[in-house]
Amino acid sequence: MMMDMKKQRKGGDGRRKTKIEKIMDKSRLQGTFSKIQKCLFKKATELSVLTGAQVALIAFSPAGKPYVCGYPDRFVNKKATDIVL
């Protein structure tokens, strides 16, 4: 009886490995960039909050526009010459 229950259980295939390849469609490329950029910046903020690390990210869109995330904000508000790495 217990064996029958295990066989009947249906589920997903789990995580699938996705093939990484360059996106050629410009509208799809911009949409994918926007989604990934939001997630990346959120993870950077989480990293800073949870560990106290100082995080600064610069991501350039496919159109060349820079997007900046700094936590704490002092990174974003400083001049490039004021930041010591």
Comma- or semicolon-separated keywords:
85 residues; flat; SRF-like; alpha+beta; MADS-box domain-containing protein; TF_MADSbox_sf; 14% strand; two-stranded antiparallel ribbon
Please characterize this protein's 3D structure.
The chain is an alpha+beta fold and 85 residues long. It has a single domain, classed as Transcription factor, MADS-box (SRF-like), CATH 3.40.1810.10. It is 44% helix and 14% strand. The protein is built from three helices and two strands, in the order ααββα. The chain has helices spanning 2-8, 26-51, 74-77; strands at residues 55-60, 66-71. It has a two-stranded antiparallel sheet. The longest helix has 26 residues, at 26-51. The radius of gyration is 21 Å and the shape is flat. The termini are far apart. The mean pLDDT is 80.
Please summarize what this structure is.
With 85 residues, the chain is α+β, with helices and mostly antiparallel strands. Helix content is 44%, strand content 14%. This is MADS-box domain-containing protein.
